[in-house]
Specification:
The protein has 54 residues and is mostly helical. Helix content is 63%, strand content 0%. The termini are far apart. The relative contact order is 0.10. The mean pLDDT is 84. Keywords: Membrane, Transmembrane, Transmembrane helix.
């Protein structure tokens, strides 16, 4: 997790200082949670589809 740096008042903030959130960092930090969420959703939709057909 990135820490927000102190921004000097006489300089413009860089993109990372202004908004430190990065989607790629979020995905790589939470890959196991996102994978588990996808697995649960797949099981749910498969079971729902199976119940409709039978």
């Amino acid at each position: 997790m990135l820490l927000q740096l102190e921004i000097p008042k006489d300089q413009q903030a860089t993109g990372e200082e202004e908004w430190p959130f990065n989607l790629i960092d979020f995905i790589t930090d939470n890959v196991w949670y996102l994978g588990a969420l996808v697995l649960v959703l797949l099981i749910f939709f498969y079971a729902r589809n199976y119940m409709k057909k039978h």
